[in-house]
From TrEMBL, chain A:
A GO BP entry: post-translational protein targeting to membrane, translocation
Top-level taxon in the UniProt lineage: Eukaryota
Gene Ontology CC entries for this record: Sec62/Sec63 complex
Transmembrane recorded as keyword: yes
Name of the protein this chain belongs to: Sec62/63 complex, subunit Sec66
Organism: Podospora appendiculata
Biased amino acid composition, Basic and acidic residues: 190-201
Keywords per UniProt: Membrane, Transmembrane, Transmembrane helix
Transmembrane segments: 6-26
Pfam families: Sec66 (PF09802)
From TrEMBL, chain B:
Annotated protein name in UniProt: Translocation protein sec63
Annotated Gene Ontology cellular component terms: Sec62/Sec63 complex
Acidic residues compositional bias, start-end: 645-654, 680-706
Membrane-traversing stretches: 12-34, 73-93, 203-225
Pfam families: DnaJ (PF00226)
Keyword Kinase among UniProt keywords: no
Length: 233, 706
């Protein structure tokens, strides 16, 4: 049949082997690195404190094994779940508003790919979280799952409003102080003007008689000023 | 008929090849190098001032360092090498003698002139054949001849004779330049013979594989990862990501400053030990009680809380230094002072990225906060500081004397609009400005390019109405009126019109050269004069504290005030069509500038009221905010109006005119025209209401002054 020159075939086969091997190692190393990178991505949100509180309340362990686990009142567990839902609402609002901006920035190359990955992971996590909260709510009270997020939304909106109000209220003291100072300085100015006018009036009255006609007009201003000042007192 | 490919053995071709190759590469690189090393800011005008603060040498040295960083040594080396190679090649071309392929010329061989008659040819041939016949000629050993040479010579002579006398041979000679007919030709490859000669093969393969196997992947890889590392705005991608996380819908200038301090650039600036050193000192300085503000650096209580919440590290140090920079706090330490002036340009670069992020969210407040932060960073002012601090020598004490207890800050233009005597009495005094300092401050104020909007309106090029989804142009007309300018000329009404270029004027439509309207002829048609289309750049921002040269930019955008959202994203203007200052760089020209921005009209008809913002990124308090109304007409209505218009305009001898007459139409009615006028004036009024007041006010002010 054929006389195969095995020795001659070593070269092409080794070429193919080396080429394939290089590609294989490159791709495995590259993939591993990518996986490690994406696994080490910082989470989008910080720790979910409210969820942790709720879960630890739910699975309260006894301090020593002989004792029975302390019974947590239902109302507290419900309140904890509601708090958790409020925090979820805040997070979901953040994600919803950021989504369009993030994707358009990614397309333009203004933010990096890893940010988008983190964002998507956070989105998925939030979906799971919402489902979990609904299930927990239904377990605590029948059909609560349908309304829990409505109340949570209202609580979140109210808190935001309150914060804003507090911020404004916090400024009242400094504003008051400033206004007192300002009022005092305006008063001083007017008083001074009044005095000056009196002085000039007496001066001009005593020294220069022909100008007497003119002194009436400038005196109108201080009197007007003193009138203005009165209602402020 | 053989074609022969040969490598360049004599070395007279490959120098050409190498020369052309290096020429193609080196010349563009040389252009790049020259262009880059020429300081772009040197050609720009500056605001003329004699003001020098204590740290001018430091700021200048930082500016120079940045410019030096731009210069690339490898590029210079490469260009020099390229020119050296080219010189060498030119030398080789000059010295190497190219083999002259001699043309076969029978006359030369016979040694006769080309005008020789047949008789002469014959006689010469006979003589020569007698003389050179191989049988007759003896081999001359001194000339180193062989029998073959003699034979050849004789053959040549007889060939030449035949070429001149024999019909067939002569034809061959005329067609192919040779009496024997078509000759084989040779093609030389312009590569030196060395590279194919034995023994060199492996080196050639080595160079080849290094070039394509190592260098090319390296270059492509470094380019690709370089683009991945930096965002479009030129900051590190990681910084950009962090800025995105730091974005908040209700962020203010202080918040933006805090967000900018998250930049990864600062981690590289304050590596290791530098991150914590002297942090306590900086913080005690910036948080000391200030003259006019709770803290010396002008930060609010909220900003202070933000600073103190941070873990100590590069970010906290960067933020503290940023506040020190903005508050113009003395740190009494050369290293700290240097760091203080270094953080600001980085923050300014990061702010560009933040600006892009704010724009992606399309909310007005963060976008404005970002622009205001840019102003603050350039002028080294804390948020809510008086714009007067932009002027040289002005200190918080001077500001206090000028503003009194008022909560509203006096702007530079407001201050300068006061009569000189009043300004002087307010600002000059013990502990305030000296007379010379006051004059310098006024001098600088009179050079600041304050863009005063005169009129803003919408239009669609070539149309009378704005129909849904059409491409609308926002035309902003305004003048650069530096604060405190005296004798500001009246606005020329002609300047306020924006005339569409004629339909056949391709140059103007494509923006190739702009024409300037100088007046109207008796028919009301504009008289145009070709204007020099050289773009005019404003003088560099007067920013004595910023360690960069910055050319001011103006951003024009429309917002929806009810929803607090950006309706039309910003258009940025860096250059203008009219000169801003006279040649001396100080006297304003008050020329009318035109800014145009195009966007798509809303898809529904109606009246849209927008707030137009004109924001300068370099000066505080130079922004304009005014309401403009965009009237979008129903497409059908506009079309109907336009139709009427067209017919009414149709001349009698035109087809439309005849058609109109045939339909029994009356001569052009004036009704539609009137209606149109009304629309136009409506639209203009809404745009200019506010501004008309503004100009009249300032006019009276200047009159007072004189």
């Amino acid at each position: 049949m054929f006389d195969i020159d095995w020795r001659g075939l070593i070269v092409p086969f080794s070429y193919v082997l080396v080429l394939g091997g290089t590609f294989m190692t490159f791709s495995t190393i590259y993939r591993k690195r990518k996986a490690v990178e994406s696994a080490n991505l910082e989470p989008w949100f910080g720790t979910h404190l409210q969820r942790n509180v709720y879960l630890s309340l739910l699975h309260l362990e006894p301090e020593n094994e002989s004792e029975k686990a302390p019974k947590v009142p239902d109302s507290i567990i419900r309140a904890a779940l509601l708090r958790r839902a409020v925090e979820d609402i805040n997070r979901i609002i953040q994600i919803r508003t950021a989504k369009a901006a993030c994707s358009s920035l990614l397309q333009r190359g203004s933010v990096g790919d890893d940010l988008w990955q983190r964002f998507q992971r956070a989105e998925k996590e939030m979906e799971e979280e919402l489902r979990d909260v609904v299930m927990e709510a239904n377990a605590l009270a029948p059909n609560w799952g349908q309304t829990i997020f409505q109340s949570a939304n209202e609580i979140a909106a109210n808190t935001a409003l309150r914060e804003r109000l507090d911020e404004i209220q916090a400024q009242t003291d400094t504003e008051k102080e400033w206004w007192e100072k300002r009022r005092a300085s305006i008063k001083d100015e007017f008083l001074k003007e009044l005095e000056d006018a009196d002085k000039t009036q007496t001066k001009t009255g005593s020294e220069d008689e022909p100008v007497l006609v003119d002194t009436d007009t400038p005196s109108a201003t201080p009197s007007g000023a003193s009138k203005k000042k009165k209602p402020k007192k | 008929m053989s074609a022969e490919y040969a490598y360049d053995e004599e070395g007279h071709l490959w120098p050409f090849f190498v020369f052309v190759l290096t020429f193609i590469v080196t010349v563009p690189l040389t252009y790049l190098l020259i262009n880059r090393s020429r300081d772009p800011s040197a050609s720009l005008k500056r605001v003329q001032t004699t003001f020098k603060h204590d740290h001018v040498p430091l700021v200048d040295s930082l500016r120079k360092k940045e410019k030096r960083k731009d210069r690339k040594l490898w590029l210079m080396a490469f260009v020099i090498a390229g020119w050296a190679v080219m010189g060498q090649m030119v030398y080789l071309i000059k010295t190497t003698e190219a083999p002259t392929a001699k043309l076969w010329n029978p006359y030369d061989i016979l040694g006769i002139s080309e005008s020789a008659t047949e008789k002469v040819i014959k006689s010469t041939y006979k003589k020569m054949s007698l003389k050179f016949h191989p049988d007759k000629v003896k081999i001359d050993p001194t000339k180193n001849e062989t029998l073959e040479d003699l034979n050849n010579r004789y053959v040549e002579i007889s060939k030449a004779y035949q070429a001149l006398t024999d019909e067939e041979v002569r034809n061959n000679y005329i067609q192919f330049g040779n009496p024997d007919g078509k000759q084989g030709y040779s093609i030389n490859i312009a590569l030196p013979k060395i590279i194919v000669s034995d023994g060199n093969g492996k080196y050639v393969v080595l160079i080849y594989s290094v070039l394509f196997g190592v260098l090319l992947p390296y270059l492509v890889g470094s380019w690709w990862y370089g683009t991945l590392r930096r965002s479009k705005e030129g900051v590190l991608m990681e910084s950009s990501n962090r800025l995105f996380r730091a974005y908040k819908d209700n962020i203010d200038e202080g918040g933006v400053v805090a967000a900018l301090s998250t930049g990864k650039e600062y981690e590289e600036l304050f590596k290791g030990d530098k991150a914590d050193s002297d942090l306590a000192k900086i913080e005690s300085r910036i948080l000391a009680e200030g003259e006019t503000s709770p803290f010396a650096a002008g930060l609010s209580v909220k900003d202070k809380a933000k600073l103190e919440d941070l873990e100590s590290g590069p970010q906290r140090k960067a933020l503290a230094l940023l506040w020190a920079y903005l508050g113009r706090i003395e740190l009494d330490d050369p290293a700290l002072e240097k760091a203080k002036f270094e953080v600001a340009p980085i923050a300014h670069a990061l702010n560009k990225s933040f600006n892009a992020i704010a724009l992606a969210y399309m909310n007005t407040a963060p976008l404005l906060a970002s622009y205001y932060t840019s102003q603050l960073l350039i002028q080294a002012l804390p948020p809510k500081a008086s714009p007067l601090l932009q002027l040289p020598y002005v200190t918080p004490a001077v500001v206090k004397a000028v503003e009194g207890d008022s909560r509203v800050h006096t702007t530079v233009q407001g201050f300068m609009d006061k009569p000189d005597a009043k300004r002087r009495s307010l600002a000059v005094g013990a502990g305030l400005l000296t007379d010379a300092q006051y004059r310098e401050a006024v001098n600088v104020a009179k050079q600041l390019p304050y863009f005063r909007v005169t009129k803003a309106f919408f239009k669609v090029t070539g149309e009378r109405f704005i129909i849904p989804s059409s491409l609308v142009t926002l035309v902003v007309k305004g003048r650069f009126v530096p604060p405190g300018s005296e004798k500001v000329p009246e606005v020329n009404e002609l300047d306020l019109e924006d005339i569409d270029p004629a339909e056949d004027d391709l140059d103007a439509i494509l923006g190739r050269n702009t024409k300037k309207q100088v007046g109207k002829d008796e028919n009301g048609k504009p008289i145009m004069v070709a204007a020099d289309s050289e773009p005019i750049l404003p003088p560099l921002a007067a920013a004595p504290y910023l360690a960069r040269d910055h050319s001011p930019r103006w951003h024009v955008f429309l917002t929806d005030s009810k929803q607090g959202r950006v309706a039309v994203p910003p258009f940025t203007f860096v250059q203008f069509d009219q000169p801003i200052f006279e040649e001396d760089g100080k006297t304003p020209t008050f020329a009318m500038q035109t800014l145009k921005a195009q966007f798509q009209a809303p898809p529904q008809a109606g009246h849209y009221t927008f707030v137009m913002h004109v924001v300068c990124d370099s000066y505080v308090g130079f922004d304009t905010k005014m309401e403009v109304t965009l009237i979008v007409e129903e497409a059908s209505k506009a079309a109907a109006m336009a139709d009427e218009e067209e017919i009414s305009e149709a001349e009698e001898d035109s087809i439309a005119g005849i058609m109109h007459a045939a339909k029994g139409g009356a001569p052009p009615a004036s009704k539609p025209v009137k209606r149109k006028d009304k629309e136009d004036s409506d639209e203009e009024e809404s745009g200019t209401d506010e501004e008309e007041d503004d100009t009249s006010e300032t006019n009276t002010d200047t009159e007072d002054e004189s």
